[in-house]
């Protein structure tokens, strides 16, 4: 009887922190163009970076990018997201043996967020996260989710605890993976109050995109 009771408590504990399935399927328009063209220009602006950190030193960084083709008027604007997280398994750690990182104890991966997705992400943060940063529940939880083609963004309120989780497709350390079927995860509970600052910076990026 005690064993059944313990298992039940464990199930309740796990369930209370469970979140919806992290399904990401697809490649951004920027990545599709990188794959499709043998010559292109890639402009990254690091003058202002929107950085979001966790309590254990992991981080995600957003900065504006422009993809263009030589001898063409085609320009594709968007954001690059660089995630630096602690490896979840040895396989991921080993895959970085030849890649230089700022911190050898962290895995670094990059994804792209197309301009149209950036606009939708801004709306999501303004509407579903910022007004609810201080919300609490009793014996309830609520989760707000935004998905781009290469990123899954979740804001979870579980009773009195709030958590941001970002999953991104893993296209490999060189970005040459074919389908991005695997994912890496960034999450934080300690930096929730930094969300408004993150929003302000991303909005500034977006206002300068063509």
Number of helices: 5
N-to-C CA distance? 65 Å
> From N to C, what is the helix and strand string?
HHEEEEHEHEEEEH
Strand element count: 9
What fraction strand? Answer: 25-35%
Helix-strand makeup class: alpha+beta
**What integer is the average pLDDT?**
84
Q: What is the makeup of the main sheet?
A: 5 strands, antiparallel
What best-fitting shape do the alpha-carbon axes yield?
globular
Q: Low-confidence stretches at least 5 residues in length (pLDDT < 50)?
A: 1-17, 93-102
Quick summary:
The chain has about 210 residues and is α+β, with helices and mostly antiparallel strands. It is built from five helices and nine strands, in the order H-H-E-E-E-E-H-E-H-E-E-E-E-H. The strands form two sheets. Strands 1, 2, 3, 4 and 5 form a five-stranded antiparallel β-sheet that branches.
Tag the structure with descriptive keywords.
disordered N terminus, four-stranded antiparallel β-sheet, alpha+beta, 5 helices, single chain, five-stranded antiparallel β-sheet, 210 residues
Structure, explained:
- This protein is α+β, with helices and mostly antiparallel strands and 210 residues long.
- Helices cover 27% and strands 32% of the residues.
- The strands form 2 sheets. Strands 1, 2, 3, 4 and 5 form a 5-stranded antiparallel sheet that branches. It has a 4-stranded antiparallel sheet with strand order 6-7-8-9, with helices on one face.
- Helix 4 runs antiparallel to helix 5 (195-207).
- Residues 1-17 and 93-102 have low confidence and may be disordered.
């Amino acid at each position: 009887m005690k064993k059944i009771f313990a298992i039940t408590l464990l199930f309740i504990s796990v369930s209370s922190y469970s979140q919806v399935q992290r399904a990401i399927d697809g490649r951004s328009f920027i990545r599709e163009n990188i794959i499709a063209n043998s010559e292109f220009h890639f402009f990254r602006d690091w003058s202002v970076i929107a950085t979001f950190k966790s309590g254990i030193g992991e981080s995600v960084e957003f900065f504006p990018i422009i993809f263009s083709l030589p001898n063409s008027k085609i320009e594709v604007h968007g954001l690059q997201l660089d995630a630096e997280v602690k490896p979840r398994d040895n396989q991921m750690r080993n895959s970085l043996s030849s890649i230089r990182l700022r911190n050898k104890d962290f895995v670094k991966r990059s994804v792209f967020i197309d301009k149209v997705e950036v606009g939708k992400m801004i709306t999501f943060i303004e509407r579903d996260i910022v007004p609810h940063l201080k919300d609490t529940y009793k014996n309830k939880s609520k989760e707000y989710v935004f998905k781009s083609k290469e990123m899954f963004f979740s804001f979870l309120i579980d009773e009195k605890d709030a958590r941001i989780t970002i999953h991104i497709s893993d296209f490999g350390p060189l970005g040459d993976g074919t389908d991005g079927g695997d994912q890496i995860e960034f999450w934080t509970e300690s930096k929730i109050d930094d969300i408004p600052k993150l929003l302000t910076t991303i909005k500034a990026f977006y206002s300068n995109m063509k």
